[in-house]
Design a protein that fits this description.
This protein is α+β, with helices and mostly antiparallel strands. The chain has one domain (about 5-50, about 60-80). Helix content is about 15%, strand content about 20%. It is built from one helix and four strands, in the order E-E-E-E-H. The protein has a four-stranded antiparallel beta sheet, covered by helices on one side. Strand 1 and strand 2 (about 15) form a beta hairpin. The radius of gyration is 14 Å and the shape is globular.
Length: about 80
């Protein structure tokens, strides 16, 4: 997408992308592909788009209507094993 950026870390290239609004209108995720092992996982760092230990923090910059579709895009970005 227009908001994608690639960062070469030497042994891998990570992608930084804006999958859509949710917790805020400026949410970013970082996708780190596996290296070294063919069956290694892709890791997706989601920040506040995904809350594990509490209810999501909703504020004036949150987009509740867009959040579910953004989460669906996250699932597609990371693939079935992320």
């Amino acid at each position: 997408g227009i908001y994608d950026a690639a960062v070469d870390l030497g042994d891998r290239t990570v992608t930084i992308t804006h999958p859509g609004s949710g917790h805020t209108t400026a949410d970013l995720v970082v996708v780190a592909p596996a290296t070294g092992h063919a069956d290694g996982p892709t890791v997706v760092f989601t920040g506040d788009l995904v809350e594990e230990s509490a209810d999501p923090d909703i504020d004036a910059d949150s987009d509740l209507a867009a959040w579910p579709a953004t989460l669906e895009r996250l699932l597609a970005i990371g693939g079935p094993d992320a």
